[in-house]
Amino acid sequence: MQTAVIVFPASNCDRDAAVALEAHTGKAPHMIWHKDTSIPDDVRLVIVPGGFSYGDYLRSGAIASQSPVIKDLKQKAEAGLTVLGICNGFQVLTEAGMLPGALMRNAGQKFVCKVSRLRLANAQTRFTKLYDAKDDIDIPVAHHDGNYFADDDTLRRLEGNGQVVFRYVDNPNGSRNDIAGIVNQAGNVLGMMPHPERAVDALHGGTDGNNLFKSILGSM
Amino acid sequence: MIARVYVGLKPGVLDPQGRTIASSLNDLGFDEVQDATQGKVIELKLADGDRDTVEARVKEMCEKLLANTVIESYRIELDETEA
Fold first, then answer.
1. CATH number for the domain that contains residue A213
2. Yes or no, beta carbons of A107 and B65 under 8 Å apart
3. How many domains does chain B have?
4. How far apart are CA A47 and CA A37, in angstroms?
5. What is the number of alpha carbons within 13 Å of residue B46 lying toward its C-beta?
6. Hey, is the C-beta of B70 within 8 angstroms of any chain A C-beta?
7. What is the ipTM metric for this complex?
8. In whole angstroms, what is the distance from residue A67 CA to residue A121 CA?
9. Assign residue A187 a region: left if phi > 0, alpha if psi is -120 to 50, beta otherwise?
10. Which residues from B are below 8 Å from A102, CB to CB?
11. Beta-carbon contacts of residue A117 (< 8 Å; ≥ 6 apart)
């Protein structure tokens, strides 16, 4: 299966994402520069990776969300393309209006870099169906702006629709409702602050991210 | 013409930076400080034009990029005396 990773100036988890994708698909992903205007038609999954696109100027993800390639990503996502935004990628997707809410400065002001324990709030999405909802998973976080905010109406809607996918067991950043990851209403766009691509190799401390990639591939 | 855009968090949105500033001022002995909010000022140098049109354009810039209206509000000031 062909996958792709979008690369912005100062993305820094694009290679990690590529390694995880290649390990799972057996095929190197297309690395798509943000100035490109289109995503090849054979691509079935796009990762918007972590990092500090444009140095987090203005707001994290704000400038990247205006990149030429995002326009095409938005159109293809509306047509059903599977999109995974990780960390800065999640910030880009909210700034682009592809996911509701916003990621604000961590409530504790500190950059948080550690392994976070997550609860599966919805283990029935195309991203999580191979997880057992009873089992918490350990996935690393590394961010300064991961404090998820949405207004009360939006939160109610997200909760009611089962769009909250991951919750922190021990909230590290002040996110409302302990939200670590959400999907759009159609279920094909996931944004999450934790890094599943950093949890795919036992030598790196854990493999709880593997089921996310396997779930996606199994859904195709 | 100069346009100054003031962007700040909406009321009710937790402002950890503002809170830290307030408590730091309290630590310095400025006990009268009850709260602080932090925002940003973006100054735009613009080609001269009809005031209403300029204001409408700057508003569009705010909605599209300068502010994230999920969490932020903005205020625009136009200054025609500065070139």
1. 3.40.50.880
2. no
3. 1
4. 16
5. 24
6. yes
7. 0.85
8. 32
9. left
10. 68, 70-71
11. A136, A137, A138, A168, A169, A170
A83 Cβ contact list (under 8 Å, min separation 6): A45, A46, A47, A48, A73, A77, A93, A98, A188, A189, A190
- Neighboring chain B residues of A101 at a CB cutoff of 8 Å: 70
Average pLDDT value for chain A: 97
The 10s digit of each residue's pLDDT in A99-156 is 999 999 999 989 999 999 999 999 999 999 999 999 999 999 999 999 999 999 999 9
Please list the active-site residues of A: 87, 195, 197
- H or E element, residue A118: strand A112-120
**Most distant CA pair in chain A: distance in Å?**
43
- DSSP H helical ranges for chain A: 14-25, 68-78, 88-95, 152-160, 210-219
Domain count, chain A: 1
B68 contacts chain A (CB < 8 A): yes
Q: What range does the domain containing A147 cover? A: 3-219
Query: Per 3-state DSSP, what percentage of chain B is helix, strand, and coil (rounded to 5)?
Result: 35, 30, 40
Output the six-digit token pair for A176. Answer: 């409302």
Give the CATH number, domain containing residue B31: 3.30.1280.10
| CB-based contact A182:A158 (threshold 8 Å) | yes
In 10 A of CB A153, how many CB atoms?
Answer: 8
CA B44 to chain centre: 13
Q: For the whole prediction, is pTM greater than 0.90?
A: yes
Contacts of B40 (CB under 8 A, 6+ apart): B6, B7, B8
Q: Find the helix packing angle between A14-25 and A210-219, rounded to 10°.
A: 60
Short-list A48, A199, A214, CA closest to A117: A199
DSSP B39-67: EEEEEEE-----HHHHHHHHHHHIIIII-
**Nearest 5°: phi and psi at B56?**
-65, -40
CA angle in degrees (0–180, nearest 5) for A149-A9-A113: 50
